[in-house]
Each structure stands twice: as structure tokens, then as C-alpha cells.
Amino acid sequence: xxxxxxxxxxxxxxxxxxxxxxxxxxxxxxxxxxxxxxxxxxxxxxxxxxxxxxxxxxxxxxxxxxxxxxxxxxxxxxxxxxxxxxxxxxxxxxxxxxxxxxxxxxxxxxxxxxxxxxxxxxxxxxxxxxxxxxxxxxxxxxxxxxxxxxxxxxxxxxxxxxxxxxxxxxxxxxxxxxxxxxxxxxxxxxxxxxxxxxxxxxxxxxxxxxxxxxxxxxxx
Length: 220
What we know:
The protein is mainly beta. The chain is built from one helix and 15 strands; from the N terminus they run αβββββββββββββββ. The longest helix has 21 residues, at 2-22.
């Protein structure tokens, strides 16, 4: 009984420690899977730097990265950690994620129930991978898309490229949409201003293929 109690306490302590460590995480691969999302704008003059999430960061010494934004830049945010906000700025190489001082940002109002037409068009993640297209048919939203690992065939000389494809209806609710298919692929979409966030269950194609990304509109 005593041993069982000690084991339970040890597991609880380990779980608590893990949660405490995870609370300061703000990184690229995780961001699209951590709603809710808001659109924000940098309001502070000068450079607004991203801060790392390793160890004692973002408060510790040496946590400031080289990546920064300037006044007027728009970005996505999700959660806070003390005086910090977890932020993502789309760009080459997968974009940039990290902590930004909350006082340097302001949250923008976005449509939480956008019309069907707001979804329609071609959307793409970093380096055009993944890429998807929304269209409407009989008042319903539909999507078709493709994703590759480690990259698109025309941009990599990897000998064996893994592919994922989706095609079907998307069930909308407010500014979110849900895609499911018979192959057990599941993707949750969130439309936030000019950005589209997608979070998949990584069961939408070959090994390492994912539709998890922050997308930008390419065309209507």
C-alpha cells in the first residue's frame, strides 16, 4: 500500500513537472494545433523580437532570437504566459513562432462567423506545401488538397517523396471547419482574418505527411 502511494505521488509529481515545463512552449510545429487563435498587430515602434521557449525562457537571459517584426506587421496569436504572448508570423521556411511581449501587440477584431464566400479560393502553406482549394457546391463548402514530405517533387531531390491528398466536404461552424474522410484523415480549419490555420491528425497520407500549417490565400 505504501509503495503504491509513493508510486502514485511520483507519477503525479512527474506529470505536474511536465505540465509546468510545457506551459512555456511556443514553437512552430505545435502552434497550429493550439487554438483558439486571434489576429494581432505590432503596435510598438522599432523592432519587436521573438523569444525562445527553451529552459527558463522566455524570461531568462539569452532568450531573445534574431527574428523580429516591425510596427504594423500582422500575425497570429493564441495563448499567454505571464507578460508574453505566443505568436506566429507566416514566412519562408515554415514561418516564425515564439514569445512576444504582450504590451507590444494589439488584438484585432475578426469575423467569427464569416460567410461561405470568405473561405473560397486557393490557400497554401510555406513553400506551397501543403496547398488546398475551397469551393462551394449547393451551399456547402468543399476542399481538395495535397501535401508532400519532405517537399514538393519539383523542389526536392529526395528519392522517395510521401504524398497526401484530401477531397470532400467541410462542415462549417462559425469561423471553423471540420474535414473527415473514410481514410480516417481529420483536419480542423480556423479562418482568422487573412490567415487560415489547419491542424490535422497526421493520418492524411504517407509517413510524415501533414496538412497542419498556417495558410495564406493565393487566389480567389
